[in-house]
Amino acid sequence: MFMASSLFGVPNVMRIWSLQRGISILSSNSKPPSSSKLHYCLQHCSNSKSLNQGKQTHQKIIQCQLGKNPFLVTKLVQMYADCDDLASARKLFDELLEPNVFAWTAILGFYSRHGMYEECVGAYGEMILRGVLPDGYVFPKVLRACAHFSSLKVGIRVHKDVIISGFEINVQVCNSLIEMYSKCGDIRCAKQVFDEMVGRDLLTWNLMISGFVCNGMLGWAIELFGCMNSDGCEPDVVTLNTVMDAYCRMGLCDEAKGIFKHIKEPNIISWTTLISGYSRIGNHEASLGIFRDMMNSSMVYPDLDSLSIALVSSQHLGSLLSGKEIHGYGLKRESGIVFYNSAGPALLTMYANCRRIQDAENVFRFMDPAQVVSWNAMILGFIDLGLEDLALECFRKMQIAEIKLDQTTLSTVLPTCNLKFGKQIHAFIRKSSFDLVVPVWNALIHMYSKCGCIGAAYSVFSNMLNRDLVSWNSMMGGFAMNGLGQAALELLQEMNRSGICPDSVTLTSVLSACSHSGLVDEGLRVFYSMMENGFNPTMEHYACIVDMLARDGLFEDAVSFIHRMPLEPDKCIWGALLAACLAHQNVNVAKLAAEQLVQLEPENPGHYVTLSNIYARAGRWDDAVLVRKQMESRGSLKPSGNSWFECGN
User: In terms of pTM, does the model score above 0.70?
Assistant: First the structure.
C-alpha cells in the first residue's frame, strides 16, 4: 500500500479502494441497491477509468432489472465512454429512445478526445436534428473538433447555437470559440469574442496571444501581452513561451532572451523556443551556446526537437565535434530507432556538411528506410557535397524501393537534373498529385532556367494556378541567368500589379538581369524606386549596382557610388569592381580595388595575382613583378592547380 501511495498519490488509491469496497457491498447485500447508489458507483468508475468495476456494476444493474432505467443507462453510456469503450457506450446509447444531453455529451467527448473530429461534428448535427439543446459541456467539445478539423463553416454555425442557447457569457465556451476561430484562420472573429467577454481567465489570454502568433500577427501578440497585467492577470510559463516564440519569429531573439530570464522554472519548450529562434536567424553560435547552457543547468533534459535543432546549428558551423557529442548523447537518452527516426535527417545532413559521407551513409542505414524523410536527407546530403550524380542515383533507388515521393523530394532533386531527366520528372508531376503544389513548380522553373530553356520555364510559370513570392523570384532569376533584362523588368511590373510585394531576392534578380543586359538606367531606376518605398538595400544589392556600372565601363560612377554607400564596402563590392576592371583593362581602378581587397583579406593570394596580371597585360612589367614580390614577402603563395581525370576517357 505504501508503494502504491508513493506512485499514484493517496487520494487515487483511496478512491480505488473505496470503489472496490462499494462494489463488494453491492454484491454481498441481499437487499437490491437503490439507483442512486448504483449511479454513485458508476460515477466512481468514470472518475478512476475503472472499466472492469464498471462492467460489474452494469451486471448488477441488469440483475436488479434496472437495465431499462434511462437515468442509469445514460450513466452507463458516460462510464463506458470515459473508460474508452466506445462499442459498449454506443450500443447502450442506441437503445435509448430519447438520449438526453448528458448521453450525447459522453459520445461527443469520446470522439473529440480520440481525434475523431468528423464523427464529433456529425454527431453534433444529429443531436441538433433530434431537438436536443446543447449545453456548456457540449460546445467546447464540438468547437475543439471544428478547430482541429479546420471546419470554419461548421464552427460559425455552432457559434450561432451558442448565442441562441445563451452560453455566450460562459468562459469555457468563449475560450473554445477563440481557439476554433484562431485555428481556422479567422483571427478577427477570435478577437471579437475576446473583446466581448465579460470575464477572462488565464487560458483566455493564452489562447488569444497564441492565436495571434499562429496567424502571423506577431506585433499584436506582443501588444496583447502588455495588456495582461492591467487586466489583473499574471502570465504563466505558457504565456511567456508564446511571447518568446513571437519575438523569435520576428527575428528579435535578444528580446525573447529577455523574456526567458523572467521565467523562474523554464521548461523544455522555453529552452527549445530560444534555441530554435537563434538558429532560424542564422546565429548558430548563440543557438549552440544556449543548448549547452540547458545541458549545464541540469534542470531540463533535451528532447528530440532540441537535439535536432542543435544538430542543424552544428551543421551550419561545420562543428563535427559538437555534432558527434549530440549524436552520442541522443543515443544514451533514446533508443536507436526513436532517435534516428526523429533526429536522423539533421544528423545525416550535419555529417554530409562536414564531408563525412561514410558517417552520413551509416546514419541513413539506421533510419527507417520506408520513411521518405530519410531518403530526402540523404539526397540533400549528396547535393550539399556537390555529388549531384550520387544524389540522382539515390533518387532512382528510392523509386525502385517504391517509396512515395513528397514535394521535398521533387523540390530537392529538380535543381540537380539535366534537361532530359528534368522533363521526365515534369511528366511525372503532371500525372501525380503534385500538379497543384507550388514549391514543386518553382523548382521546375529553376531547372528549366538553369538548362537554358527559358521558354519552357516561362511556360510553367504562366500556367501556374497559384503563385507565391518564390515563384516570381524564380522566374525573375531565370531571366537574369539567361541575360534577359527587359523580360525581368516587365515581370517586375506585372508582379507589382498583382499585389505581390518584392523582397530582397527580387531586387537582386532584377539588378543582376539589368547588369548582364547593359540596362544601367533601368537598373538604377528600380534600385532607387525601391529605396523610396522604404526598402533598405543590403550589401548584395550595392554590389549588384557596382557590378552593373563597372560592366558598362562607368568606373568613375562606380567608385563614386561606393564612396556614397551608407555601408562600409566589403570584399563583394571591391571584388565586383576588380572583375570588371579585368574585362576593361582599367589599371588605375583595378589598383584601387586590389589594394582594398588586400587590406580586407591580406592572406588571400588571388588578389595579388589578379593585380599582377592586370599590370602585365598593360605592359607594366615592373609593377607586376613588384606585386608578386609583395605577395611572397607576406607568405601568401597561391596553391598549385589540381585537376581530376578518368583514365581512358
Answer: no
Whether 148 contacts 117, CB under 8 Å: yes
Residue 331 is inside which H or E element, if any?
helix 320-333
pLDDT value at residue 6: 32
Q: Which residues lie below 8 Å from residue 435, measured CB to CB, with a gap of 6+? A: 429
Contact 344, 367 (CB under 8 A): yes
Q: Which residue has the cell 526513436?
A: 338
At residue 644 the predicted structure's pLDDT band, cuts being 50, 70 and 90, is: very low
Cell of 20: 472496490
**334 Ramachandran zone, left/alpha/beta (phi>0; psi -120 to 50):** beta
Q: How far is CA 39 from the centre of its chain?
A: 49
359: which residues sit within 8 A by CB, 6+ positions away? 351
Cα–Cα distance measured from residue 359 to residue 376, given in angstroms and rounded to the nearest whole number: 16
C-alpha cell at 470: 518564390
Shortest CA distance to 634 belongs to which of 598, 606, 609, 603? 603
Number of Cβ within 10 Å of residue 5's Cβ equals 13
| 404: nearest Cα among 360, 438, 427, 373 | 373
DSSP tag of 416? G
Cell numbers of 518, please? 547593359
Is residue 639 scored above 70 in pLDDT? no
What does the radius of gyration of the chain's CA atoms come to, in whole angstroms? 34
Show Cβ contacts of residue 76 under 8 Å, excluding neighbours closer than 6 positions. Answer: 42, 54, 58, 61, 89, 92
Helix (H, G, I), strand (E, B) or coil at 519: coil
3-state secondary structure of 47: helix
**Burial class of residue 513, CB neighbours in 10 A (0-12, 13-18, 19+):** buried
User: Residue 233 and residue 195: Cα distance in Å, rounded?
Assistant: 15
Output the CA torsion 31→34→37→42 (10° steps): 110
Q: What percent of the chain is modeled with pLDDT above 90?
A: 26
Q: Find, among 220, 261, 219, 254, the residue nearest to 240 by Cα.
A: 261
Q: What is the pLDDT of residue 427?
A: 87
d(CA 424, CA 58): 64
Q: Which three cell numbers stand for residue 392?
A: 540522382
Q: What digits encode the pLDDT tens for the residues 273-289?
A: 999 999 988 899 999 99
Helix, strand or coil for residue 214?
helix
